[in-house]
Amino acid sequence: MNQQGTIGADNYDGVAKALHWAVAGLIVLQFVLAKLAEESGSEAQELLLLANHRSVGLTIFALAILRLGWRFYRPPPKLLPMPGWQQIASQVAHWSLYALIFLLPITGWLYSSAEAVRIEWFNLFAVPDLMSANQELAEPIEEIHETLAKVLMAIALLHIAAGLKHGFIDKDATLRRISSKASIGLFVLIVILGAVFLF
Question: What is the pLDDT of residue 86?
Answer without folding.
Answer: 86
